[in-house]
Amino acid sequence: MKKMTTSMKRKKKRKTTTGSSRLLRVFLSTLVISVLAVSAKDKKTQQSEPQAVIAGTVFNTSGFALGGAEVLVVAEPKESKEMKTTANDRGEFAVRVPAVPKKYRIDVKIKGFQPQTKDVTIEGEQRKELNFLLEAAK
Hints:
By secondary structure, this protein is α+β, with helices and mostly antiparallel strands. The chain has one helix and seven strands; from the N terminus they run αβββββββ.
């Protein structure tokens, strides 16, 4: 076997120290990036505009929830893009809109039922609840 010389020992020791330093640098870099990301998210949340919620539930005439109903929310007059969502298994839906005075049209439809439309006016930070009772298609 080869005997380890002093220079070989130093080289080996440097490699170990370098590996530990590299690991420490990676850890610290990850920590700094995480802190900056959380800070940016908090600032964005604080600076975001106030919001209102248009929520509701879709039922059939028997009183059972209609999960999977398509919900379309359109600002009146139509000046921004439409917002779409789908009612969950319990027939519930919710859409966030800017908390400014505005009128919205909500269209609900699902295959096998007649579509229904309702209007709602948002006046500020509030939650508007709507119930839709869809009749079977004829």
